[in-house]
Amino acid sequence: MSTLLEITSEESFGPHLASIPSSTLIVLYFHAPWAAPCAQMRAVLSALASQYPITSPPTVSFISVNAEELPDISEEYDVTAVPYVVLLKEGQVLESISGSEATKVRDAVERYAGSGTGGGAANGAGPTTIPPALTAVPREDAPATATQAPVAGGAGAGAAAPALTPEQSKEALFARLEHLVKAAPVMLFMKGTPSAPQCGFSRQLVGILRERSVKYGFFNILADEDVRQGLKEYAEWPTFPQLWVSGELVGGLDIVKEELENDPNFLDSYSVNKATAAA
Length: 279
Prior knowledge:
Blueprint: E1 4-7, H1 10-19, E2 25-31, H2 36-49, E3 60-66, H3 71-76, E4 84-89, E5 92-98, H4 102-113, H5 119-122, H6 166-181, E6 186-190, E7 192-193, E8 196-197, H7 200-211, E9 217-220, H8 225-235, E10 242-245, E11 248-251, H9 253-262, H10 272-278
């Protein structure tokens, strides 16, 4: 049966994709270790992979990529949040799925690759046993948090979770934001992606980071309204883009420019060039 293969370097990513026949459906899964829904999506994709026997040429190939450790690949596929699944075939992107909806991912894979008939299905592990999706950020109208979602077949499965109070929703959101701002030593919360900024201020800030060869993580706030509104209150900073360094808010474009005017070496310690020279 097929398995979910982890790609650990940008250098090996291109050759691996090139080794896969163009007729094969490639399921590309982007994840991050701090995001709880990613663990659930990994289980979903591993279950799906087990349903497809190894053939020649393969019908489908499942590939996993750490979105933070391999940012160039993430940027290439416009990854705005994790978990994020991209379906490729014949060198073209067929569909992109953001979030942890197991049924949506399963339906998309079966639509392009057909239903699997591998060992998982033979053992009764069909689509109905795929673990349920987790909610990345609970809303006030959502009945369960990521930690409250019942595991399929486990204790309490099928029982309704208590509704969240506004205070609990805010607490859960702030907990997520705390992880997000520390997801990389330099984190940019922007409108759009580095390859396609959606505002001039975001574009300028991306340019500043690139000019200094700063390795950074990014989050497209246009793709997640909870993060967009919640970060304003969490950071006590009402506008975007926002640059965070070592989990601390630096500020927007004007503040970053001021910091660099006062200290031109402000971002040097995060430069890829410096890291290369030190090595």
